[in-house]
C-alpha cells in the first residue's frame, strides 16, 4: 500500500459522479462496492454495533471490510467512516433483498450463493 499525504482522502461512494473535481486534483480516490457487498456491510454494522446505516454508508463499510480482507489496508490501520442518512427507512428493502425476494421498490432479487 502506498502512503498518502495528509491532504489525500479515499472516498467510497455509491454515487460515482459525486465530486469529480476533487478526484481530478489527486486529493481523493473514489472506490466502490457492489450492492451485495453493501447489503453485507449493512448487516455487519447492524449486528456488531447495533447501528442501522443508510445504504449509501453501507457501501463505505463494505469497501473497508473488503480492503481489510485483501490487505489493501494495513493491519491495525485507522479508518474513519462517516455514517449519514437513516437506515431505518431501508429496512424493508434490505430484508427482502437478503431473503432473495423482491424489494418494495421492485428492484430485482439478490441471489445468495
Task: Give a quick summary of the entry.
The protein is mainly alpha-helical. The chain has helices at 20-24, 35-49, 55-70, 91-98, and strands at 9-12, 28-31. The longest helix has 16 residues, at 55-70.
Q: Report mean pLDDT, rounded to a whole number.
A: 76
Specify Rg, calculated over alpha carbons.
15 Å
Low-confidence regions? 1-9, 106-113
Give the strand order of the largest sheet, numbering strands 1, 2, ... along the chain. 1-2
Oligomer: single chain
Number of structurally distinct domains = 1
In DSSP terms, counting alpha (H) and pi (I) runs of 4 or more, how many helices?
Answer: 4
Under CATH at level 1, the class stands as Alpha Beta
From the spread of the alpha carbons, the general shape counts as globular
How much helicity do the residues have?
25-40%
- What is the name of the CATH architecture? 3-Layer(aba) Sandwich
Largest sheet: 2 strands, parallel
Which fold name is given in CATH as the topology?
Answer: Rossmann fold
Could you tell me the strand content as a percent range?
Answer: 5-15%
Order of helices and strands: EHEHHH
By DSSP, the count of extended strands is 2
Main structural class: mainly alpha
- Terminal CA distance reads 31 Å
Amino acid at each position: 500500500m502506498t502512503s498518502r499525504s495528509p491532504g489525500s482522502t479515499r472516498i467510497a461512494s455509491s454515487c460515482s459522479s459525486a465530486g469529480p473535481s476533487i478526484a481530478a486534483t489527486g486529493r481523493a480516490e473514489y472506490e466502490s462496492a457492489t450492492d451485495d457487498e453493501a447489503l453485507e456491510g449493512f448487516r455487519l454494522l447492524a449486528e456488531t454495533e447495533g447501528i442501522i446505516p443508510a445504504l449509501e454508508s453501507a457501501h463505505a463499510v463494505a469497501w473497508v471490510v473488503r480492503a481489510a480482507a485483501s490487505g489493501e489496508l494495513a493491519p491495525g490501520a485507522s479508518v474513519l467512516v462517516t455514517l449519514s442518512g437513516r437506515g431505518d427507512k431501508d429496512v424493508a428493502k434490505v430484508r427482502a433483498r437478503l431473503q432473495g425476494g423482491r424489494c418494495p421498490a421492485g428492484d430485482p432479487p439478490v441471489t445468495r450463493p
